[in-house]
Amino acid sequence: MTTKLIAYAIGIVVVWLVAMRTRSVTARQVLYLVASWLFYISWGSWLIVVLLFSSLMNYALGEWLKKRISAGRLWTGILFNLALLSVFKYLPLLGNVAPSGSPLLLVKRILFPAGISFWTFQAMSYLLELYREEDLDPTLLEFCLYMSFWPTVLQGPICRMSAMLPQFRQEWSASADDLKTGVRRIAIGSMMVYLGNVMAGGLYTGAGVEGAFSNPAAHLSGIDVWCMILGYGFQLYFNFCGITHIVIGAARLFGLQLHENFNRPYLSTTISEFWTRWHMSLSFWIRDFLFLPLATMRREVWWRNLSLVIAMFVFGVWHITPSEKGNVLLLFWGTYHGILLVLHRQWQEFRKRVGFEWTGALATAISWALTFSAVCVGYIFFRAESIRQAVAMLKGLVSPHGYLHRSFDPSFYVLTLVAAAGYFAVIGGTVLLDYLGEAARRRQETAPGVVSSWLGIVANERWVWITPVVVVLALYLSVIFQPGHSETGPVMYALF
User: pLDDT band for position 487 (50/70/90)?
Assistant: First the structure.
């Protein structure tokens, strides 16, 4: 893996240097496309033929739809995409439940193209944007680049043609701001991925999140379950958000700005707010292209609420992978969040009817605690390896007499608490530095001085001194604790 990462880093530098010397926009697009295909081949091997087929198919469907915009042609395109996705993502599930000797066992051998969920949703968003009469006229080259763009092809964020096409066509030369932002985002992402891997493997081998969920212990106390779901929540966030930072940073090096995917989601005070901060590109895709069309079909309140549940159920279906573990629970997870969203809407309506004010620091703290707890409980359905384990975890949460019992290595509880405290401390420190930077700027405008000048530099150029501190701390912890390694594979979003 280390060799592959070094090769990617060298590849980015080479492509960047060539792109800098390329004045033709079309030639630069060809360069990016070839680099994207080589990158995908390094992960997906010959399965790139599926990506190429999907690209050609959707370009043809788009040209066909543009000739006559109609619901029938749109649905034809959507069904073609869903059929292709289902063959590789959902058909192998039949092999998991097929009896011995059944011919359906053969479908288990179907290989899974990396990232197919992401680029299939990108293809459908293109068709849906055309149906909404967006002015989109990509060439075949531009469309293939949109589908295969190397930073996003494996794990998103899910982009839209209306946002990417103008950027693919722009004249470009490297700017200091692009380089500064790109390197900073890559550095942040790399550190977050490292932290996510530490959460997964633990401070000692087998003492992390992956070891906790694979532990066959029959009895789980409430404290065990809370540490498991808190630990997994931060592992997932560090890994997925970290990868998103790297992706956005890598694209920014080339002057391309991608959709943000995370915005401090664990600070949300309502479940609705959470879904505007977590996996934003997919959340907004579900909102714009599924929930809103469904909700506007009828005016009744019950239908709008049902549309929320349906949209989140589909969210759960999207997360299903060809593996045998936990797929049914993902349907519960999606439905669970749909119900939470409906309950939040009912709470809002109740407050409006009775004129009940819910404001102030105490109300905000209570709302945050309830939201954060509800999201963490949902991770039971998202991560548990079986229904039996999920039931055991739920029982542990509601059994007060078992909260004093502990099943895991003490370092796991310490790691979870440090991760949670560190997350909120870093956000608090960031807010403080932003405030100090703004205060220093205002001070410099009214009464310039050495103190305000240095304070501004420390606050605004924080990664100059924060990065070395974090690297040294990470190396120190690696020597002291010798972090373990995940034994059950990559973070979930790497399986799509």
Answer: very low
pLDDT band at 463; cut points 50, 70, 90: low
Query: Which residues form the domain of 159?
Result: 2-173
Rounded to whole angstroms, the Cα distance separating 127 from 123 reads 7
Q: Which amino acid is at 457?
A: I
Name the token pair of 241. 């958000």
Cα distance between residue 285 and residue 122, in whole Å? 9
The token pair that represents 352 in the structure block = 């409006």
Instruction: State the DSSP string of 254-308.
Output: TT--PPP--S-GGG-SSHHHHTTTSSHHHHHHHIIIIIHHHHTT---HHHHHHHH
For all residues of the chain together, what is the average pLDDT? Answer: 86
State the Cα–Cα distance between residues 239 and 230, nearest whole angstrom: 14
- 136, 215, 159, 140: which is closest to 409 by C-alpha? 215
Residue 317 is assigned to a structural domain of this protein: no
**Cα–Cα distance for residue pair 96/98, rounded to 1 Å:** 6
Is residue 31 in a domain? Answer: yes
In a domain, 488, yes or no: no
Token couple for 175: 């700017």
278 φ, ψ (degrees, to nearest 5): -110, 130
* pLDDT tens digits for range 393-405: 999 898 877 777 8
- Which segment, 142-151, 202-211, 429-438, is predicted with the most confidence on average? 142-151
Model pLDDT for residues 335-359, shown as the tens digit of each residue: 999 999 999 999 988 888 888 888 8
Cα–Cα separations (whole angstroms), residue 289 to 122, 124, 293, 450, 457: 12, 9, 6, 53, 44
What the block records as the tokens of 290 is 């599924």
In a domain, 43, yes or no: yes
Query: For residue 324, what is the DSSP state?
Result: S
How many domains, the chain? Answer: 1
255 sits in the region (left: phi over 0; alpha: psi -120 to 50; else beta) called left
- Start-to-end Cα distance in the chain: 19
